Protein 1
Amino acid sequence: MRVKDILSVKGSSVVTIEDTSTLVEAAQTLDTHAIGALVVIDAMKRPVAVITERDIVRELAVNGQACLNRTVANAMTPAFVTATPDESVEIVMRRMTDRRVRHLPVIDENRLTGIVSIGDVVKSKIADAEAQTAAMREYILS
């Protein structure tokens, strides 16, 4: 299974936020969309980072409530780790584990085409295992 297969099921919609937005705006956007991460875009609308609920909580813990008026650029995850549509789920899972990230924007020809989470990856692996089990059962019974 490939990243594009996950996106074909889940869709390619990605919620973004500008790097000049405040952490309050980021938190409100996360809440409005009931999601855990936003792709951060720069002034040219290019994806440059990810900001997560965890990033905001960390900023609060370290800098207190005053940090909520700081920009997203001050709190976003510094390493921008991405995936491509043609990468296998196994490669993406390994990258997420190695880099300790739970969300990967999907970039195709320098264009943001989706986002996959660790939940999406696990769901696809479970579906794959269930399909293999069903195929084996069918093979054994026939």
Note: The first helix runs from residue 3 to 10.
Protein 2
Amino acid sequence: MPSQQPQISDLPAITTYLTGHNDTGKAIVEQTRPANWTVYDNKEMAFNVAYTTSQFPANLNDNTDIKTHDKVTSSGKLGLVNPHGTVCRTVDFAPGFECMMHRTQSLDYGIVIAGEIELVLDSGERQLMKPGDIAVQRATMHSWKNPSESKWARMTFVLQDCEKLVVGGEVLGEDHGRGTEGLPMSGN
């Protein structure tokens, strides 16, 4: 079962800044939120969900998006993907750790922030990614490996719900793989 914990890596702390408007329509930083980490796989991987949306386009009026985000994240039912919406998540990977082979039913942008990450596909193909590199993950079966023996790695992902993917007449749905006990299926 995953648990909320302080940051486990030695990488810089993360803060999310939510902007908004004052009464005159000028932009302001409305809220500042420190990272809230969920730890998986024997403390070798941790998630911080910075933000979610639950509809497209997002409704920013009267802070509807913020209220909905808070409701979704406090429900305990957020999977890897938020049906009909998006998830912005940072993931820290321990040195030498390879996460579970998995598939999300989503279109994801994965950006390497710190360290190096190896994208591993179920075909056996591997791609080393360095800071600033971006993977456009299109509902494929994959895992992420931190090839360093001594340094943590960090990626930020933006996942957006997608139509069901059909390949060769078969629907390829979400598959979490090992190590994610307690993480709900997305239901999309």
Note: The two ends are 22 Å apart (CA to CA).
Protein 3
Amino acid sequence: MRKFIVPLLVMSFLAAGASVQAREENPFITSKEIDLIKLLPPPPANDSLQTKAELSEILALQAARTPEMTARSQADASEEIWRFADVMGVKFKREQLPVFARFFQRVVDSEGAVVDTYKDIWKRPRPFMVSDQVKPVVKLSRSGAYPSGHATSGTLMGIVLANMVPEKRAEIMARAAEYANNRIICGVHYRSDIESGRITGTVIAARLQTRDDFNTGFIAARDELRGVLQLGAEPAEAK
């Protein structure tokens, strides 16, 4: 009978480890905790004056789009914290920040876990689905346009990152705004999608700060980041 004890213990240990890892990889929050129906107005109707005005903005930006603007908006199609590297400096790299990377993956996953539910409820068509004059320069998505997931995640990432490095708050939040606006430049979102995404990202960031698991992860990720960037253990704002 004893020969079965060790394998059973090993299997139990592996199962427990897998369970812990699964919990760590989960988003911090989902649409069950945040009701966007109560926080956001419904998106403008396709034939509304607002949508027509927003479509005109997209077409004007499309006509003015330079190769540099196109390249920037295409690069920002990637939903990851490393898009802030141009603000954070050359040491801001995934391989140097493993704890930080895992933490921000959960942050980004939280955006999708909240927003995707409401995209499916509102089902706002993307601009190129409304007008064949719109020529997107990124991979097309036919998921609901409202609210913008990229604007949500960009705002959310910006707020969390700025709280870690308040010395760069202005630059970080300016980059977050550009990240969101690039979804209009690349032709896949309306202005109101972006504005609602910024609101949603701010709400998610505020709600996350009330959670113990988020705050524990935040401190560990912040300390690793500030150590790599040689900024000191604790931000001046926190003292």
Note: The first helix runs from residue 5 to 25.
